[in-house]
């Protein structure tokens, strides 16, 4: 028993350190009971093979704290919404969709809708089995019409977004590959946008510095014939202006991160 205790004490420190987890880049909204054990498993493997950070709600059956789920949505760059036949029978899915829609409308989140074994019309017009499940939800919350209207608006708006369909790519690995490829493409485009914003900040700095330089060389020199006065004006005006410009650019770049 003493040997066992010694081995256990040696192993426990190795299990204590927790790996650093970055905020999720991709949030996946789906009906767990319907898709978790098949399609979602392959999708998670595909995204992780590309070293993409993601979050899926593994605790849907346990009614995971909704605030935690909302935080994960807020931290994400992209949301993949997988509409399936039973999606609207889940209150959790509809609440996730509502939050995703809110952030999408604020241009804080990119959304990729995936129509898995349902048509775009089924989702937008609430038809077929997809619509029948929503009718049950409408009956359940008939005393809360605002909630129903908000869910309907989220469904219609997200369904209007360009997405992927199982009609075109199937319900297996072909659709998984298309989702992974689209996610990568959108992440690269968003990163390119951030780089372009950084370049524009640099351009502003160059233009501001040029303006200060021209002011010192031409305007200040014309008004200051005395060399000593000119040097004093150059120091008093040029240096503070440059410092101010640098400070403003630093604040701007920090805000854009």
Quaternary state, please?
A: single chain
Helix content: 55-70%
Task: Encode the helix/strand succession as letters.
Answer: HEHHEHEHEHHHEHHH
Strand arrangement in the largest pleated sheet: 2-1-3-4-5
Which residues sit in consecutive blocks of at least 5 with pLDDT less than 50? 1-17, 193-199
The rounded distance between the terminal residues' Cα atoms is: 55 Å
Query: What proportion of the residues form beta strands (DSSP E)?
Result: 5-15%
What characteristic shape results from the CA principal axes? elongated
- Main beta-sheet strand count, sense and barrel state: 5 strands, parallel
Helical element count? 11
What is the SS-derived class? alpha/beta
What is the residue-mean pLDDT, rounded to a whole number?
Answer: 78
Q: State the total count of DSSP E strands.
A: 5
| Spatial extent as radius of gyration | 28 Å
Keywords: Membrane, NAD, Transmembrane, Transmembrane helix
Protein name: TIR domain-containing protein
InterPro entries: TIR_dom, Toll_tir_struct_dom_sf
Organism: Brassica napus
Question: Topology, please?
Answer:
Blueprint: H1 2-15, E1 26-29, H2 32-35, H3 39-49, E2 54-56, H4 66-75, E3 78-83, H5 91-105, E4 110-115, H6 120-125, H7 128-140, H8 145-159, E5 164-165, H9 166-169, H10 173-223, H11 227-256
Parallel strand pairs: 1-2, 1-3, 3-4, 4-5
Helix pairs in contact: 3-10, 4-5, 5-8, 10-11
């Amino acid at each position: 028993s003493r040997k066992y205790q010694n081995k256990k004490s040696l192993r426990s420190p190795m299990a204590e350190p927790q790996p650093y987890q970055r905020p999720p880049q991709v949030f996946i909204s789906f009906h767990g009971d319907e898709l978790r054990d098949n399609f979602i498993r392959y999708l998670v493997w595909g995204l992780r093979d590309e070293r993409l950070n993601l979050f899926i709600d593994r605790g849907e059956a346990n009614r995971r704290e909704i605030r935690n789920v909302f935080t994960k949505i807020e931290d994400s760059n992209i949301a993949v919404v997988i509409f399936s036949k039973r999606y609207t029978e889940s209150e959790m899915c509809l609440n996730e969709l509502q939050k995703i829609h809110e952030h999408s409308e604020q241009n804080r989140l990119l959304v990729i809708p995936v129509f898995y074994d349902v048509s775009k019309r089924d989702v937008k017009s609430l038809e077929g089995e997809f619509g029948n499940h929503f009718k049950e939800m409408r009956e359940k919350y008939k005393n809360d019409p605002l909630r129903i209207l908000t869910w309907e608006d989220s469904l219609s708006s997200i369904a209007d977004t360009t997405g992927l369909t199982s009609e075109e790519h199937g319900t297996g690995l072909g659709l998984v590959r298309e989702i992974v490829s689209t996610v990568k493409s959108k992440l690269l485009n968003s990163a390119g946008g951030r780089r372009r914003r950084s370049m524009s900040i640099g351009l502003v700095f160059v233009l501001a510095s040029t303006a200060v330089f021209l002011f010192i060389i031409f305007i200040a020199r014309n008004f200051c014939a005395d060399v000593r006065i000119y040097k004093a004006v150059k120091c008093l005006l040029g240096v503070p202006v440059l410092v101010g410009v640098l400070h403003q650019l630093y604040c701007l770049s920090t805000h854009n991160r």
